[in-house]
Amino acid sequence: MKDSILKKKNLLKVIKPNPKPVRLFFFWAGIIATVAYRIIIILNSYDPLWVKIAWYIGTIGFILYFGHRFDVARKRANLVRDYKLVETVDRAKGIKPQNRVALRYLVKTSLTSKSRWNAAVIFILSVAALFIGIFMDIYGL
After folding, report:
1. CB 65 within 8 A of CB 29
2. How many alpha carbons fall within 13 Å on the CB side of residue 47?
3. What pTM does this model have?
4. Chunked in runs of 10, what are the mean pLDDT values of the chain (141 residues)?
5. How far is CA 105 from CA 11, 26, 47, 63, in A?
6. Nearest residue to 123 (alpha-carbon basis) of 74, 65, 78
């Protein structure tokens, strides 16, 4: 009975992470974006064009990285909720008490953490900033 409910919800699928090259792409997008934003202070002493290039690289990188982080955190929270993993940890037999506390903490915070909303806000603000930046560049504002 339980399996048929899970099948209807499409939960009995293979759960696997993105391929390593995809994970590395988002990792490096975040690193490059962060470096691009940090070097703007130095580029201000040189040419406004380089500032603009660094800003666009940083903004696009943040869109990629934080969009991905939101998606990963959302998937984790959904897995915890859909599979009732907090309750599963609480009911599991043969787990040492300290291990149960640690597991419960990890599973519960995957569900309750605000990190996905932090990533969503940064993603949304970065998209808005990108559109505003493009608009300002096109219209010379």
Report:
1. yes
2. 4
3. 0.83
4. 54 75 97 98 95 98 97 92 93 93 94 93 98 95 83
5. 23, 27, 49, 29
6. 65
d(CA 130, CA 124): 10
Integer Cα distance of 53 and 65 in angstroms: 18
> Quick check: helix, strand or coil at residue 19?
coil
Q: Which residue has the tokens 């399996």?
A: 3
Through-space distance between the first and last CA atoms of the chain, rounded to whole angstroms: 62
Contact 58, 31 (CB under 8 A): no
Three-state SS at 39:
coil
Supply 85's token pair: 């993993």
Angle between helices 48-82 and 20-38 (to 10 degrees): 140
Sequence ranges of the domains in the chain: 20-138
Calpha distance 80→97 (Å, rounded):
20
Of 79, 87, 136, the residue nearest 110 (C-alpha):
79
Is the separation of the CB atoms in 36 and 61 below 8 Å? yes
As a whole number of angstroms, the distance between CA 44 and CA 49 comes to 9
